[in-house]
Structure formats: C-alpha cells, structure tokens
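Notebook entry, structure prediction.
Reason for the run: the old model in the group folder had no record of what sequence produced it. Starting over properly, with the input documented here first.
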Amino acid sequence: MLDSLQHVLFAFFGALAVSLVFTPLARRFALTVDLVDKPSTRKKHLVATPLLGGAAIYLAFAVSIAAGLLIWPGLSEGIVADTPLNWRTISILVIGGGFLLTLTGLLDDLLELSARKKLLLQSLAAVAVGAYFVIKGLKLSIFLSGSPLAWLAAPVTLLWLLGITNSVNLLDHADGLSGGIAAIASFFFAVINLLARNDAISFICASLAGACVGFLVFNFNPASIFMGDCGSNFLGFTLGVIAVLGVYTPTGSIRELSIFSPLLVLAVPMLDTLLVVIYRIRRKAPILVGDRNHLAHRLMRIGFSHRQAVVLLWCVGGLLGILALLLPTLKPYQAVLVFCHAVGFAAVIAFFIHGGERAAEGRS
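New structure, fully documented this time:
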C-alpha cells in the first residue's frame, strides 16, 4: 500500500507542477494567436478570455503518465482482474484517447462546430478507443456476460462515454466549476482504486486530479484562462474511461452494485445535464442550444455569488464522493439505501433551486 501511495503522490504532484508551468504558457500563446472566448449575451464574463487551458491540462496529464511509464514500467499489479490490460496498454489508451478528444474540442473552439458535428467527432473518437480495447483483447460485459443482452455492452459503453463527455462539457459554464468537479471526481476515483489495489487506474486518476488543480489556480473566478471545449471534452471522456476501468466492489460481492460508485462520483455533471434538459423541455426551448439555465447560473439567480455557487457545487460533489467511498464497505441492501439517499439529496438540491427561482421571480 505504501508503494501504491507513493505512485499516486508522484502522479498528483508531478501533474500539478507541470500544469502550473504549462497553463500560463498556454494563456500567452492563446493571446498571441487571438484564440479567446469573447463576451456575449449567453456568457457572464465581461472581457475576452484566452482559451487553450484544456491543452495545458492534457499535456500535464500526459507528461505525468509518460513519466510514470518510464520510472515504473512494471506498474501492472492491481490491473482490472481477468482482463488482458496492462499498465502500458492503459497508458496508451488514456493518452491517445485524450488526445483525440482534446483535438475534437480544439476544432470546436476554432470553428464553433454544430452540435451534430461535435457529437459525430466524439463518437468516432469513442469508437477508436473501443477498437483499441478489442484489439488488445478486452471484452466489455458490464454485467451482461452470458446473457442474451450481452451484445448491448458495447453500445451502452459508447453511450456512457458520450454522455459523460457532454455532461462535463455542459458543466463548463462557470469559472472553476468543470475543472473543480473533475479534480474532485478524479480524487475519489483515485482513492477508490487505490484501496482496491488497482494501481494503474489510481495513478491515472491522480495525474488527472493534479493537472486540474494546477489549472484551477488560474481558472477560479475571476478566471484568467478558460479550458475551452478542448479541456471539457478531454476531461469528460477521460473520466468516462476511468469509470469503466475502475474497481468498485470487493471480491465476492455483488458486482452489479459497482455501478453506484461512478454514478455518485460523477453525479454533479449528470445532475446538471438532466436538470437543464428538463428545464428546456418545460420551456419548449431547443435542447441542443446553449443557454444560462445550468446549475451555477440558477444558483446565481437566487442570490449566490459566482464563487459561492461554484464552491457549493464542489461541496455537493465532495459529499457524494464520500458516499461512493463507503459503498464497498457496505452490505448490498445498505449500498442500495445509500444510493437512494444520494438520489434524494440531489432531488432536494433541485427543489431548493427551483423554489428559490420562483421566490426571486415573485419579488421582481
């Protein structure tokens, strides 16, 4: 366990240091080439802000993983049981897949792609990662092995990756929110997999957390740089892959319960996406057209400051992450009760925001 902890600390602080160096360099380069996010009626910032923060996050992440490969080439103990994956294979997967999604997001930042084109590029990247899985001999089953529905494993995994990618992308609507939630989620994924001795995945999670924290130094309100779609696409996709490869239940327990942990860790982006879609449907607004009705926007409308709204959502992510840590220690019925508790907590948050909005509208 001490060796595993050493690896995780190296990954976190290594990625953090590289991110602290690369993020201001990315900001300077973005200003040089005029790659900035300009104010508009849909955006809260008042001045043009450099993009490319996502490129710095990706590079810090990739450098940390590459360094880990060089220093500990045999870091393969604890890889997901009963699969042919090893440390080198998974590293190539997350670095290569992350690059594809970073590139996809960068094209969107440059060309402002339509929602359909962006979804197509994301799908192609996800299929490429899936093909790499198959080439390396991994068979995804997601608890459907031996069932007539086993063929659904691949499309369900594809939908999961696309869903989380776009949820984190949609969450990037306030300074520090998407990066902070990604850092918190990566931290909990790192701890869960560290305890399960899934060393390679915990190293990758710690690298992602460190890269995000280094970026947050420059991105917390008022932000001097944004991650852009290149960052939110990369973060969402990588978190989705991590969730698929993680180990969440002890040996001998009911494996279907393992789905609860990633759902809790990634609850904030999923809740934000769900509520904004419901909001748009109720208002008969286009689902794929951006607006200012995300969680942080709505919290600010009922009186929270920008920083307060972001920190509150960080706290929600942290509290749900703590519940995810508890799940492997519980009996099956207890785990189900904890998950139901978390769903109820999310419902209370949604009701609180909705009620606050109605009260604010009544006062105006």
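Summary: The chain is about 70% helix and 0% strand.
The old model has been moved to the deprecated folder.
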